[in-house]
Amino acid sequence: MKNGYISLCVNIDHVATLRQARFSSYPSVVEAAQIAQNAGADGITVHLREDRRHIQDDDIPALKNIIKGKFTLEMAISEEILDIAKRNKPDLLTIVPEKREELTTEGGLDIIGQFEKTKAFLEEVNKASLKASLFIDPNLETIKAAKDAGAERIELHTGEYANCKLNSEEMKYQLSQLSKAAKYAKSLGFLVNAGHGLNTSNVKAISQLHSLEELHIGHSIISRAVLIGLNEAVKEMKHLISG
Ligand code: PXP
């Protein structure tokens, strides 16, 4: 079922990955954000990791200055990063689990196991007049715990779905889990986003899930950009999710 407009928020972390590979001044994340916006991105997303492996502190105010749509900052439950968020006021903080040894965010937040910590952090975010979204696996108990912790927005982790062999039974099963999770989250009043591992081959079915607000997509768009340019890569994804 298709419901309304889904925003495409382009994650440009891997433009910074390329820059940090040589500690050079290029490619510019600001220029990348501008190109993505001009190509139709509804928002720009970055993850300021505690190890600063790609996005750097200075990127945040520079991006804040030029982003016209939604600016989303992904971050761990970290006082240090929250201070940076308070100074720069992105439109949304997506709270993710973070491990130093991981290649990318591996699973959703363990809200049940870290209930009090999550609740207290959400309160702090609210007090700072910022908005938070919790990045969670498509699991009904976790969604309920997110509600009990005071969250109003969640991002469903699409990684398990994205890792499946294309058109496999497992992929269909993972899609049905995401569909159930999105419907349940909507019934609890959540604004529901989704992301992780989405690419031109698997995004269509996700874009047709019940009432999603935003898709946050990075690695596949930046990878396509190496071959066909960022402008074309954003347009291609935008066409797939809204076509
Ligand atoms: N959503 C969240 C919460 C993430 O942590 C990431 C990775 O930074 C993404 C979406 C984008 O994932 P990908 O780069 O695989 O598209």
Molecular structure report:
This protein has 243 residues and is an alpha/beta fold. The protein has a single domain (7-242), classed as Aldolase class I (TIM Barrel), CATH 3.20.20.70. It has helices spanning 13-22, 29-38, 59-66, 79-88, 115-127, 140-148, 159-162, 169-187, 203-207, 219-228, 230-242; strands at residues 7-11, 43-47, 70-75, 92-95, 132-136, 153-157, 191-195, 214-217. The protein has an 8-stranded parallel barrel, surrounded by 8 helices. The longest helix has 19 residues, at 169-187. The protein is globular. The mean pLDDT is 95.
Topology:
Layout: E1 7-11, H1 13-22, H2 29-38, E2 43-47, H3 59-66, E3 70-75, H4 79-88, E4 92-95, H5 115-127, E5 132-136, H6 140-148, E6 153-157, H7 159-162, H8 169-187, E7 191-195, H9 203-207, E8 214-217, H10 219-228, H11 230-242
The protein binds pyridoxine-5'-phosphate (PXP).
